[in-house]
Specification:
Blueprint: E1 2-7, H1 10-19, E2 27-33, E3 51-58, H2 69-82, E4 90-93, E5 97-100, E6 103-104, E7 106-113, E8 116-123, H3 148-169, H4 172-181, E9 188-192, E10 198-206, E11 212-215, E12 221-224, E13 228-231
Parallel strand pairs: 1-2
Antiparallel strand pairs: 2-3, 3-8, 4-5, 5-6, 7-8, 9-10, 9-13, 10-11, 11-12
Length: 232
């Protein structure tokens, strides 16, 4: 694992390393980011004491669909974080945000170029932002803030294990674990699509490909493949 004191974005750095031939399994952690990004280019606040880390997966012809790596990342991060928040009720919100008591604890950003998929994790360990559109939290708000390097190593081990299962057994065990750690079926959600449409419904699980299923007010089901999803 490589560690730097400061960088713009660990995902951007990892993408550059991938372009230069870096192999799968490399991890890059920064104590501080100056240009962290979330989904759709949103700024990710990156103070020291939190976890900012990226890794690289090289896709193989026999791999499951690349998009399902979002679920792999989610279950690996949930497993790692649960070590430091036992009994805190960490849940997963589609596709890969972690929540504690409905507040966002982390974010995951996947970016693909050719056979390289860069997966970046941002986890609020010691600090969390206030006054956002949606509530945020940190590990330190519920338990002693853990050592960042230990969390990083735990995540790397969990991710390696789940990546191996994804490759060896397919998406099914990953999907099962995701569902077991997700908010309850029937949770009210709103999905904001890229075209601006907002769809309200009740969480009804995942389809076989990992897409979100919402049950609408009229009883119909809507399958969501890409959206920002929020608890209502």
């Amino acid at each position: 694992m490589r560690t730097v004191a400061e960088t713009g974005s660990t995902n951007a750095d990892m993408a550059a390393l991938a372009l230069n031939g870096a192999g799968e399994g490399l991890w890059l952690r920064a104590d501080r980011q100056t240009g962290g990004r979330g989904r759709q280019g949103r700024e990710w606040v990156s103070p020291p004491g939190n976890l900012f880390i990226s890794t690289l997966v090289r896709l193989r012809p026999s791999d499951p669909p690349a998009a399902t790596l979002a679920l792999v990342a989610a279950v690996a991060l949930e497993e790692a974080v649960a070590v430091f928040l036992p009994g805190a009720g960490v849940t997963i919100k589609w596709p890969n945000d972690l929540l504690v008591e409905g507040a966002k604890l982390s974010g995951i950003l996947l970016e693909r170029s050719g056979d390289a998929v860069v997966i970046g994790f941002g986890v609020n360990l010691a600090h969390h932002p206030e006054s956002l559109e949606r509530p945020a939290t940190s590990v330190g708000a519920h338990a002693p803030a853990p050592n960042v390097a230990i969390v990083a190593q735990t995540l790397a081990e969990c991710f390696d294990r789940w990546l191996g299962r994804w490759r060896g057994e397919g998406i099914a065990p990953v999907r099962d674990r995701w569902l077991a750690r997700a908010h309850p079926r029937g949770t009210a959600l709103t999905a904001r699509l890229a075209d601006g449409e907002a769809i309200d419904g009740l969480f009804h699980g995942l389809d076989a490909s990992g897409a979100l299923i919402l049950r609408l007010a009229d009883g119909a089901q809507r399958v969501i493949h890409a959206a920002d999803v929020f608890l209502l």
